[in-house]
Amino acid sequence: MNSLLGFTFILLALGSCRGLQDNDVDEEPELVFQPSKYGSLWPLPQNVQISDVSLKLSSSSFSITDAKESGAGASCGLLQLAYKRYYEYIFGGAKKQKVNRNARAGPTDLLELQVWITSPDSECDGYPSVSSDESYELTVDQPIAVLKAPKVWGALHGLETFSQLVYEDEYGTKTINSTVISDFPRFPHRGILLDTSRHFLPVKVILTNLEIMAMNKFNVFHWHIVDDPSFPYLSRTFPNLSQKGAYHPYTHVYTPADVKMVIEFARLRGIRVVSEFDTPGHTQSWGKGQTDLLTPCYSGSTPSGTFGPVNPILNSTYEFMTQFFKEISEVFPDAYIHLGGDEVSFACWQSNPDIQKFMEQQGFGKDYRKLESFYIQNRLLDIVAATNKGYIIWQEVFDNGVKLKPDTVVHVWIGSGSNSEISKVTAAGYTTILSAPWYLDYISIGQDWLNYYKVEPLNFNAGTEEQKKLVIGGEACMWGEYVDATNLTPRLWPRASAVAERLWSAKEVTDTGDAFSRLSLHRCRLVERGIPAEPLTPSFCLHEYKGI
Ligand SMILES: *[C@@H]1O[C@H](CO)[C@@H](O)[C@H](O)[C@H]1NC(C)=O
Ligand SMILES: *[C@@H]1O[C@H](CO)[C@@H](O)[C@H](O)[C@H]1NC(C)=O
Ligand SMILES: *[C@@H]1O[C@H](CO)[C@@H](O)[C@H](O)[C@H]1NC(C)=O
């Protein structure tokens, strides 16, 4: 799904060959680091007031605790694990020391962060969803800071924000300014797509990136888990799919335990895992372990030995899909499954005499979009709906006139500028996710994060207020043709952070100079936390990356 965008990016890349200048994107005035009044906060909260009153934190006296009134106490494992994580981030990996209550607190010390879940149901043991309450309020004052959130999801974001407020004074002492923040996301769907089919990504690398997503307040991991090149998902019902379709049947697969681990690791960070099983195209790897699933292509009147998209005319196809998606709906707890549906090539279908006969019988004429529609609309959507899941599809399914159920979410990946596609999809009344401007697998020299940052998702032609409400967010996509565990993390971060702020912060947050300063510090924070996030421009970090 890269062809159209590639063209634009080639032009961009040529443009920046002129002098290999650092800020050669869109004639940007040179970005100079100037301390922001918002410190290193990223993404910028909705309302922030940071005062000049600074307080010291000491690893021996500071602790993160449950407020007495909190609706989630010591029994909430999700919060207890988060307290430990953030304590370690704040004090640079120092393990939690025994809090010394008798230590004499100076008048300018911050002793405690109290976390107060204000609603009776904290959702501690639940899964995040598109309608989760992610809001929080944070007050930092001497001697106690208070983080209030209706649900654990907001508390997780508030802990990240708190950790971002801590900095080192000139003597290296951990310091935080007295601050008041109230915060909530602008869009509820803020995702990262990772592709584990073109290249296999070890589970550890996926977990690392989930951790970084949490540091950027992303809340959806779109797992493009299988595609043409390989099928690494180990299905309990159809083990031959990965046995035959993975790059390697034992080392390059995600076992049920792996998948469970990814989902729980994500949940503990407020992140949904939306799996994508793309059909009827992009399925070459499926065919290796499931005979008769794909359409045999013909050369003249004989089968050519190659296969095309899923064969939509066989009953066995739908028996397979019913069992397969039943399993998927049980393995992945999220309320949505991404069903793909992009880039279906009709050539193979056209070549096959049985398909031609079926087209005639159904009265489809020569319109193969009707056959695609038959597969998706008449059969697949019903199969998935029977599992009580909602579904997301790539925009072509909509473009090809497939009649969709009103609750379908359409994922827009083609088009730019006025976003005419988004305008068409929302005019038809569908909920929409935007990815077209955020294909981060395309790289160029210079500060291309600015291009991602400057996108305004709701700036489309003829968009009424009703239409704009249908845009629930977006996703940064990292397709895997040229990406594996060696380069995924630095290629993704901090470029995806630009998308994170666009989807979280208020619409008015567009000052690229201020963003540059905060993002530079945010990137250094990622580096300090051990993440190889690439630099924006010639500069240095106080704590440089030390290699693996
Ligand atoms: C924090 O307070 C110090 C003075 O104690 C001030 O110089 C600094 O600008 C403040 N930081 C922010 C982000 O406002
Ligand atoms: C897997 O494939 C082998 C042949 O390669 C076959 O014998 C076996 O029945 C298949 N298993 C399933 C569960 O389909
Ligand atoms: C496929 O299923 C339909 C309806 O269940 C049935 O009418 C039809 O005969 C079946 N086709 C084949 C080839 O088995």
TrEMBL record:
<keyword id="KW-0458">Lysosome</keyword>
<comment type="subunit">
    <text>There are 3 forms of beta-hexosaminidase: hexosaminidase A is a heterodimer composed of one subunit alpha and one subunit beta (chain A and B); hexosaminidase B is a homodimer of two beta subunits (two chains A and B); hexosaminidase S is a homodimer of two alpha subunits. The composition of the dimer (isozyme A versus isozyme S) has a significant effect on the substrate specificity of the alpha subunit active site.</text>
</comment>
<feature type="disulfide bond">
    <location>
        <begin position="524"/>
        <end position="541"/>
    </location>
</feature>
<feature type="domain" description="Beta-hexosaminidase eukaryotic type N-terminal">
    <location>
        <begin position="41"/>
        <end position="165"/>
    </location>
</feature>
<keyword id="KW-0968">Cytoplasmic vesicle</keyword>
<keyword id="KW-0378">Hydrolase</keyword>
<dbReference type="GO" id="GO:0006689">
    <property type="term" value="P:ganglioside catabolic process"/>
</dbReference>
<dbReference type="Pfam" id="PF14845">
    <property type="entry name" value="Glycohydro_20b2"/>
</dbReference>
<protein>
    <recommendedName>
        <fullName>Beta-hexosaminidase</fullName>
        <ecNumber>3.2.1.52</ecNumber>
    </recommendedName>
</protein>
<dbReference type="GO" id="GO:0004563">
    <property type="term" value="F:beta-N-acetylhexosaminidase activity"/>
</dbReference>
<dbReference type="GO" id="GO:0005764">
    <property type="term" value="C:lysosome"/>
</dbReference>
<keyword id="KW-1015">Disulfide bond</keyword>
<feature type="active site" description="Proton donor">
    <location>
        <position position="343"/>
    </location>
</feature>
<keyword id="KW-0326">Glycosidase</keyword>
<feature type="disulfide bond">
    <location>
        <begin position="297"/>
        <end position="348"/>
    </location>
</feature>
<dbReference type="GO" id="GO:0060473">
    <property type="term" value="C:cortical granule"/>
</dbReference>
<comment type="function">
    <text>Hydrolyzes the non-reducing end N-acetyl-D-hexosamine and/or sulfated N-acetyl-D-hexosamine of glycoconjugates, such as the oligosaccharide moieties from proteins and neutral glycolipids, or from certain mucopolysaccharides. The isozyme B does not hydrolyze each of these substrates, however hydrolyzes efficiently neutral oligosaccharide. Only the isozyme A is responsible for the degradation of GM2 gangliosides in the presence of GM2A. During fertilization is responsible, at least in part, for the zona block to polyspermy.</text>
</comment>
<comment type="similarity">
    <text>Belongs to the glycosyl hydrolase 20 family.</text>
</comment>
<dbReference type="GO" id="GO:0001525">
    <property type="term" value="P:angiogenesis"/>
</dbReference>
<keyword id="KW-0732">Signal</keyword>
<keyword id="KW-0443">Lipid metabolism</keyword>
<dbReference type="Pfam" id="PF00728">
    <property type="entry name" value="Glyco_hydro_20"/>
</dbReference>
<dbReference type="GO" id="GO:0016020">
    <property type="term" value="C:membrane"/>
</dbReference>
<dbReference type="InterPro" id="IPR025705">
    <property type="entry name" value="Beta_hexosaminidase_sua/sub"/>
</dbReference>
<dbReference type="GO" id="GO:0005975">
    <property type="term" value="P:carbohydrate metabolic process"/>
</dbReference>
<feature type="domain" description="Glycoside hydrolase family 20 catalytic">
    <location>
        <begin position="187"/>
        <end position="506"/>
    </location>
</feature>
<dbReference type="GO" id="GO:0030203">
    <property type="term" value="P:glycosaminoglycan metabolic process"/>
</dbReference>
<feature type="disulfide bond">
    <location>
        <begin position="76"/>
        <end position="124"/>
    </location>
</feature>
<keyword id="KW-0325">Glycoprotein</keyword>
<dbReference type="InterPro" id="IPR015883">
    <property type="entry name" value="Glyco_hydro_20_cat"/>
</dbReference>
<dbReference type="InterPro" id="IPR029019">
    <property type="entry name" value="HEX_eukaryotic_N"/>
</dbReference>
<dbReference type="InterPro" id="IPR017853">
    <property type="entry name" value="GH"/>
</dbReference>
<dbReference type="InterPro" id="IPR029018">
    <property type="entry name" value="Hex-like_dom2"/>
</dbReference>
<feature type="signal peptide">
    <location>
        <begin position="1"/>
        <end position="19"/>
    </location>
</feature>
